[in-house]
Structures are given as C-alpha cells and as structure tokens.
C-alpha cells in the first residue's frame, strides 16, 4: 500500500507564493498592457489553483488507515485539520473567482484601466490568502510530516522492535534487515522511525525500529514516544521487546519490566529478547530471566552487536509472522 500522502502535491506556504508572485510581476510581459495584466493574473491563478487541488486531493480523514490517522492525531486535532482544509478550499475558490472576474473585466475595459484592475485583483486575492494563511500553512506542514512516513507500509507483515532507549534497537534492525540506521552511544538516538526490509524470495517483511520509549504515562510522552506507540498499536505485526542486561542500561530493571507490561497490554504477539548478552551484568540479567520465567514466556538471548543468537531469533520471527521455510506466507 502506498502512503496516501506520497503522491499529494504540496504547495508552497502562502507567503512564499505571494512573494514569488511579487517578484515575478515585473518579469511578465505581453503584446499590450491588457495582455500583460491578464498574463500576470493568469499566473497568479495557476499558483492559487494549487491550493485548491491540494485541499481536494488531501486524503479523506475517515478513510485513512489507523496508523496514519493516529499519526495525524499526534500532530494536531482532527477537527482543526478538517476546519483548516475547508478554509484552504474556500479561500482558494474565492481567490480563483476574483481572478477570473478581473481577467474578464480587463478584457472588457479600455487599455488604460488594465493596470489598475490588475493591482486591485492582486491586492484582493493576496489579502484573502493572507487572512487564511495560518490555516493553509498548517495543513501544508501536516501533509509534509505525513509524507515523511512514506516508508511505513501498514499492509506489510511487520516486525516492530521496541524497548527502552539505547537498548540496541537500531543495531538489531541493521543486523537483521536492509536498514542502516545511524547508531550512536547515547539515549534518544532514534528520533524517527527507521524502516528496513527482510526479503524472503518475493515476500517483504518490514522491520521497524521504534524511537526510544520511556517508562512513563501516556500524557507525559513526547511526540517521538507517541510515534513509537502508534506503530506498536496500529501496525499489524509482532513485537520484539528488547531488555538491556548490561550495566549501562538507561532504565532500571523495574522500569524495563513496567514498560514491557505496558507493551504486553497491546495484546500483540511479543517476543522478549535480552540484548547485550556479551556484556551482561549478572544481577540485572538474573532479575530479567526470573521475571520472564515467572511469566512463562519464551525469551531469546542475543548480542545484536556481536551477532550472537540472531539466527535463532530470526527463525522464530519468521515462524510467528507466518513466513515459513519454503518462503510462503502461511494461509492460517
Ligand atoms: P537504540 O537507541 O535502542 O536504537 O540503541 P542503538 O542500536 O543505537 O545502540 C545503543 C548502543 O548500544 C550503541 O553504542 C551500540 O553499539 C550498543 N549496543 C547495541 N547492541 C549491543 C550489544 O549486543 N552489545 C553491546 N555490548 N553493545 C551493544
């Protein structure tokens, strides 16, 4: 499935359009004054029409996949967006009507009136657009943000890598998929969702590295954390939850467990993985396995960096996601 925002033509911000038009005016010439002023207004018309088309082509909010809907809700209130969309449509329609009216007026009036009429039209349209510019620009920036999510395909089988900051999510994604996210040794490395693919014959599996999510209540979460949870809740797939067993862990074991419990409450298939086994700190490691054993869940012990235990993990993930050894999606 294509990102519904990928093909959307996003116009420039209102002020940019007005400024470009102001600079263009002296450069537009014609065979007569009338002809020149008509050309000027026609060019303005073409630029304004882009806002109209944009408002019409903006995907219908009601028809969006929950992943995209949630992405919008993280950025803005849905009702505000709808209001701004209708303001964008209305003000561009009004502007286009004004321009059409003045173009036909210039045609009818004597040559001596042409420049005055052009300036009048220009002023009126500019003020209509400027009055709505806050709203129009808001829709433009929302569309821009949503287009950036183009790599996430909600229809593909998905493996979501979750866990506290700095646990090794990006490292794991880069080791088991085609993605090459930046990896750095400090928390909050993962500012945006990284997407990689594993291709088994012709079957694409999407591997998503969620931004570091912290162990804290929903209302305190920032946008990055909300994006991560959106992916977890609204993409269909399985979750790999990574625990950090090293001394450098950014969260305490209790915090890691609380976070794991929260992810468990999403009712998805979750594969617990203990990472940094190459540098495991016994006290932490023992607490993690004690907890997982009490939950009666099967877990995997890996070192993403040193590539220990990755084959077993991959095998399990393919089984769970329904891609078996013969590389076919299971029909069950
Ligand atoms: P993310 O924030 O969860 O995406 O974590 P990163 O993948 O950016 O890794 C954070 C740090 O942990 C980096 O310095 C990695 O090199 C290191 N790291 C990742 N996996 C391992 C591992 O298995 N063992 C050890 N010792 N370090 C690791």
TrEMBL record:
**Keywords assigned by UniProt, alphabetized:** Nucleotide-binding
Domain OBG-type G as annotated: residue spans: 157-322
Q: Which domain of life is it from?
A: Archaea
In terms of InterPro entries, this protein maps to:
G_OBG (IPR031167), GTP-bd (IPR006073), NOG1_N (IPR041623), P-loop_NTPase (IPR027417), Small_GTP-bd (IPR005225)
The terms under GO molecular function for this entry are: GTP binding
Q: Which CDD domains match?
A: NOG (cd01897)
Indicate what this protein is called per its UniProt record.
GTP-binding protein
């Amino acid at each position: 499935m294509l990102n519904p925002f990928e093909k959307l033509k996003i116009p420039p911000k209102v002020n940019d359009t007005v400024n470009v038009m102001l600079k263009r005016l002296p450069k537009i010439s014609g065979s007569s004054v009338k002809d020149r002023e008509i050309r000027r207004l026609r060019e303005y018309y073409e630029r304004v029409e882009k806002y109209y088309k944009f408002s019409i082509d903006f995907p219908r909010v009601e028809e969006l996949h929950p992943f995209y809907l949630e992405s919008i809700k993280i950025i803005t209130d849905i009702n505000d967006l709808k209001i701004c969309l209708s303001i964008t449509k209305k003000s561009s329609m009004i502007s286009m009507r004004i321009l059409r009216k003045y173009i036909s007026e210039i045609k009818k009036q004597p040559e001596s009136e042409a420049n005055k009429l052009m300036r009048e039209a220009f002023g009126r349209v500019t003020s209509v657009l400027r009055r709505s510019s806050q709203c129009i620009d808001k829709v433009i920036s929302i569309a821009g943000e949503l287009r950036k999510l183009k790599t996430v395909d909600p229809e593909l089988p998905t493996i979501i890598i979750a866990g506290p900051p700095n646990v090794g999510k990006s490292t794991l994604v880069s080791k088991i998929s085609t993605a090459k996210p930046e990896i750095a040794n400090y928390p909050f490395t993962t500012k945006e969702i990284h997407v990689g693919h594993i291709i088994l014959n012709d079957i694409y599996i999407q591997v998503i590295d969620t931004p570091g999510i912290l162990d804290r209540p929903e209302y305190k979460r920032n946008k990055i954390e909300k994006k991560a949870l959106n992916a977890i809740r609204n993409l269909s797939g399985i979750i790999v939850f990574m625990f950090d067993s090293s001394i450098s862990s950014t969260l305490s074991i209790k915090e890691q467990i609380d976070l794991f419990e929260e992810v468990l409450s999403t009712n998805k298939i979750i594969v617990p993985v203990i990472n940094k086994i190459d540098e495991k700190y016994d006290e932490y490691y023992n607490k993690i396995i004690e907890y997982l054993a009490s939950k009666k869940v099967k877990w995997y012990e890996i070192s993403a960096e040193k590539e220990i235990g990755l084959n077993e993990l991959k095998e399990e993930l393919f089984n769970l996601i329904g891609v078996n050894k013969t590389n076919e999606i299971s029909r069950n």
